[in-house]
């Protein structure tokens, strides 16, 4: 008798991307992402608009994910969905959809912690990339628009938080700095782009002194704001004439903070398997800095680009491991805007 395949329909709607994926026995068959350009003109995500966009996108995105996967809807084994952390209105769209879909098709549901999913994106099997998977235990620096954390990952569903941001996240530091420079939202990828042409040592900004393995980025943002304001007062073309060097210097400050803390965590734990995850792991300087650890006997892991930023593939792979461990939830579940990475 042939083994029954496990097909997970995964839904992600925690912030401003509506995404659906089908994961079959750990392999991604489809991963559809609808971005919300509407937030660009507001220089940040507007929660009310985000939930309305999710409402519009969710059905077409799910239909497309199922259609591209080539599987029959009847063969979906379970629905996995992001239950938190994230924006309440956004999360509720995905949670309600997942619950209704499961009820209509008489299949179980699996709630997924978005931060765990960013980490488990490393385990998505995708024939396009053939990427290597980290070995347990590994250290993961998870850096996104809402979170900055250093975690020991002991097993698929066993996480220990070592440190996190006390205020802004690394992605927020990128986006808020970009806003100061008059760049569109999200500013992270734009800072990355202009930084490639600039000198990272041109400008120096205040680096926070935070104990332990925690982070802080709000002081850096203020330092950048005051510096730019004082320069623009004397020369209103200052930003235009120095954009590449400004971006390179800002990026360098943010990445140095991240790498310093990662080195500290390595020293404390002695772990030699190093991974990064989350939207900011798309950053080219961070990717380069992580790769450099290889020269010192470390193994490093960076998820393929499409699995760094928010996507349902990562929700599907987490759902798959929860399915294998019989970790289902029930129809009473709702969304939680705040959740710790070690909360299951
Ligand atoms: O993980 P993600 O898609 O969403 C959250 O869960 O927050 O991360 C989005 C964040 C944004 O702050 C965005 O500016 C940042 O990731 N980001 C980048 C780059 N690509 C995305 N930051 C720096 N350089 C990039 N290339
Ligand atoms: Zn995310």
Number of strands: 10
Q: Specify the biggest β-sheet.
A: 5 strands, mixed
Sheet/helix structural class: alpha/beta
Element-by-element helix/strand order: EEEHEHEHEEEHHHHEHEH
The fraction of residues in strands falls at: 15-25%
Mean pLDDT: 95
Bound molecules: 5'-O-[(R)-(carboxyoxy)(hydroxy)phosphoryl]adenosine, zinc ion
End-to-end separation in angstroms reads: 34 Å
**DSSP summary: helix tally:** 9
Low-confidence sequence ranges: none
Q: Rg, please?
A: 20 Å
Strand order of the largest sheet: 3-2-1-4-5
Helix content: 40-55%
Shape: globular
Short structural summary:
The protein has 344 residues and is α/β, with parallel strands linked by helices. The model has no long low-confidence stretch (mean pLDDT 95).
Structural overview:
The protein has nine helices and ten strands. α4 runs parallel beside α6, α6 packs antiparallel against α7 and α7 (238-269) packs parallel to α8. The strands form two sheets. It has a five-stranded mixed beta sheet, sandwiched between helices. A five-stranded mixed beta sheet has the order 8-7-6-9-10, sandwiched between helices. The protein is 40% helix and 19% strand. The mean pLDDT is 95. β2 (17-24) and β3 form a beta hairpin. The protein is globular, with a radius of gyration of 20 Å. Bound molecules: 5'-O-[(R)-(carboxyoxy)(hydroxy)phosphoryl]adenosine and zinc ion.
């Amino acid at each position: 008798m042939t083994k029954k395949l496990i097909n997970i329909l995964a839904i992600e709607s925690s912030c401003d991307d509506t995404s659906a994926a089908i994961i079959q026995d750990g392999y991604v068959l489809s991963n559809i992402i609808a971005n919300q350009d509407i937030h660009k003109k507001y220089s940040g995500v507007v929660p009310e608009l985000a939930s309305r966009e999710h409402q519009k996108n969710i059905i077409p995105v799910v239909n497309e994910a199922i259609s591209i996967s080539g599987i029959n809807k009847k063969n979906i084994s379970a629905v996995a969905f992001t239950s938190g952390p994230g924006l309440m209105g956004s999360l509720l769209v995905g949670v309600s959809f997942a619950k209704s879909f499961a009820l209509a098709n008489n299949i179980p549901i699996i709630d997924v912690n978005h931060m765990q999913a960013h980490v488990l994106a490393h385990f998505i099997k995708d024939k396009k990339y053939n990427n290597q998977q980290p070995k347990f235990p590994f250290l993961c620096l998870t850096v996104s628009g809402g979170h900055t954390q250093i975690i020991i990952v002991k097993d698929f569903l066993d996480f220990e938080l070592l440190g996190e941001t006390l205020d802004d996240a690394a992605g927020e530091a990128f986006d808020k700095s970009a806003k100061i420079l008059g760049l569109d939202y999200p500013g992270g990828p734009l800072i990355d782009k202009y930084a490639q042409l600039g000198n990272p040592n041109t400008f120096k900004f205040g680096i926070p002194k935070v104990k332990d393995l925690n982070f802080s980025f709000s002081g850096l943002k203020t330092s950048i704001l005051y510096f730019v304001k004082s320069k623009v007062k004397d020369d209103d073309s200052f930003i235009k004439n120095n954009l590449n060097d400004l971006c390179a210097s800002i990026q360098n400050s943010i990445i140095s903070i991240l790498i310093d803390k990662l080195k500290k965590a390595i020293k404390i734990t002695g772990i030699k398997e190093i991974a990064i995850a989350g939207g900011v792991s798309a950053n080219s300087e961070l990717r380069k800095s992580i790769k450099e650890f290889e020269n010192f006997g470390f193994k490093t892991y960076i998820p393929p680009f499409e699995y760094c930023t928010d996507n349902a593939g990562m929700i599907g792979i987490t759902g798959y491991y929860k399915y294998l461990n019989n970790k289902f939830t029930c129809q009473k579940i709702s969304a939680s805007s705040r959740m710790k990475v070690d909360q299951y």
